[in-house]
Amino acid sequence: MDDGFLMEVCVDSVESAVNAERGGAGRIELCAGLVEGGTTPSMGLLQVVKQCVRIPVFVMIRPRGGDFLYSDREVEVMKADIRLAKLHGADGLVFGALTEDGRIDTELCTALLAVCRPLPVTFHRAFDMVHDPLVALETLISLGFERVLTSGCDSSALEGLSLIKRLAEQAKGRIVVVPGGGITERNLQRILEGSTASEFHCSARSARDSGMKFRNPNVAMGASFSAPEYSIKVADVAKVRTLNAIAKNIL
């Protein structure tokens, strides 16, 4: 924590993790599959990131993209990934699980939290898919989550700002409400001032051209909506620094 706030940057590579730290991030959320909103990273990635940065690394535990309603076998994968992440140096963990009617899955969350401890745990943006966010917040507090990441149940933190503020007021320090979703240097000031948040979450990425000289334009390695093969998105040191400076001036 620095000057009363903390910037968390979500990253999916060693380069982005190093850039986030260089730019002034206070914490990293380590993921794979950022196109899908983040999935569990490889343990190899976690190991190398831990060797390269000193700031805390929170690891995403999400076995697939899509919804947050998990099968018994997916739950076993999540438990195994939590144990491995702890073994390889995770400083915290990030997960979320819902019931089919859009409520926090208290039974599953209780079981996963038990595997996570003693590490701190963030409930991720599955929160933005709940039926009643004010009730859901009380549930997370009762379960013992340290943080909840939210865009205010809207498409971005700016658009969900009024709910984020209401959640922060309701929390009264019992849980940290972390705005995230579409945060940029253009809207960070409004989000921090409007939410009274002490932490925020962003990706601060820029596209970097691939170093490949030979290129085959006829083949894509994923679905049509995936990122192009010859453009790599990485956390941008300058963007992270700018966001950090904006937050320091405000808070």
Automatic annotation (TrEMBL):
Compartments where found: Cytoplasm; Nucleus
Gene from which this protein is expressed: Cutc
Species for this entry: Alca torda
The family this protein is said to belong to: Belongs to the CutC family.
Keywords per UniProt: Copper, Cytoplasm, Metal-binding, Nucleus
Function, in words: May play a role in copper homeostasis. Can bind one Cu(1+) per subunit.
Chief subcellular location: cytoplasm
Subunit-structure text: Homotetramer.
GO molecular function terms attached to this record: copper ion binding
SUPFAM superfamilies: CutC-like
Cellular component terms per the entry's GO annotation: cytoplasm; nucleus
Pfam families named in the record: CutC
Name of the protein this chain belongs to: Copper homeostasis protein cutC homolog
Superkingdom classification of source: Eukaryota
InterPro entries in UniProt: CutC-like, CutC-like_dom_sf
